[in-house]
Amino acid sequence: MTRWSDYTTGERIKILRAEMTQEQLAEATDLSVATIRKVERDLGVGLPSLLRISAALHTDVSVVLGQQEPRRAMRRDDRAMLRELSRAVHDTAAGVTGDLEPVSAGEVTAGLVAAWDRYRAGQYATAGALVAIAVRQAAAVAHTMPAGSEGAAASVMADAFRLASYVANQFGARDLAYAGIGHAAAQADLAGDEVRSAMVASGRSWIYLRDARLDQASATAERSYVMIEPRYSNNDPTLLATYGWHVTFAAVVAARDGNVTRADDLLSQGHAVAARIGRDVSVNGTAFGPATVRAQAVGLQVSTGRPSKALETYAAMGDTSALTPAARNRLHLDIALALAETRQWDASLDTLLEVCTASPDWARHQALPDVIARRAQHANPTASRYRKLAAILGTSHTGH
After folding, report:
1. Buried b (16+ CB within 10 A) or exposed e, 107-129
2. CA–CA distance from 203 to each of 66, 70, 108, 172, 334 (Å)?
3. Are 137 and 97 in contact (CB under 8 A)?
4. Model confidence over 95-135: pLDDT tens digits?
5. Whole-Å CA distances, 238 to 232, 271, 291, 395
6. pTM of the model as a whole
7. Which residues are CB-contacts of 323 (< 8 A; sequence separation ≥ 6)?
8. In 10 A of CB 314, how many CB atoms?
9. DSSP letter at 318?
10. Sign of CA dihedral 166, 167, 168, 171
11. Among 105, 149, 274, 367, which has the minimal tally of Cβ within 10 Å of its Cβ?
């Protein structure tokens, strides 16, 4: 039986467009028919075009590239983790907490911090296993809280449900992601916490983005930062970091939606906020500051067809130690793609192999490695490198 990953990218696009003609796909993507034909013949395509095609086909780019099946195929241990996470989210939302040993609110918070740390490190399966426990424990603690303490308990529950939705989204479990973010929104409202509500809105925007619902992603991303825009006199680093992260993410959404001018404007706002903070800070499960926004700028420039500018931005970055491990990995993938787009094939493959070898669990959840490898192989078909990548990513031979 032929696996989804055994098809070429062009073949997968043909399958996904079904009754849609090449001319209709060209119109939906604002690409030429000649470009669509080139893509379907596997003659090479850039990331901006792939993103347009995946959006027009109402699917994630990782499905187009064969890293996910239309219904995601995954390892047995990943499926087991998702089943447990799903039970924890749905049972807890229904008021079913089960028989858990009593723990303190401090222990729940510590467990949730550990789960967020694993998530930011790109260890998504471990983060999912930890947050499944944290969701149940947070609900159990909430039931024992005295009257008047509902807000504090709801804040913890909002963070736990949000992380659960993020993990589900990484694994392509979209129904669970939507459920988790919905429960997170309800808890953030119960807590009366505008910052957490904004984080939840941004999380919902990301789920929309992965679900190729670009209009909803754009509108939700804008709402997420507008609701917490600080006064100019407010220099609270927590609020500034949260606001700056939301503005920068909205830039990513605008770029994915093809609005490059809007994306650049939002990114400029992000740079201004980062300059006000002066350093990268972690807050509410995310991180933001000068290094973070520069890394996002590199990714945005690559995805909008400006690879040379991306390389210039990266060369001026300097120290990247303030980035989370996952953010640093993503930056290196963006650089590998920029090198491929500027035909620096050896440097591109070296960078790609380095990051995938160092963080294989993280890499196999990313769409970019396959994009980069396919771009590079058209010009530099060294089979051994692609076999190494295929082994790391758990795919069939990367170059079809």
Report:
1. ebbebbebbbbbbbbbbbbbbbb
2. 25, 22, 22, 14, 22
3. no
4. 876 666 667 778 888 888 899 988 988 889 899 999 999 99
5. 14, 16, 16, 41
6. 0.73
7. 280, 287, 291, 292, 295, 331
8. 21
9. -
10. positive
11. 149
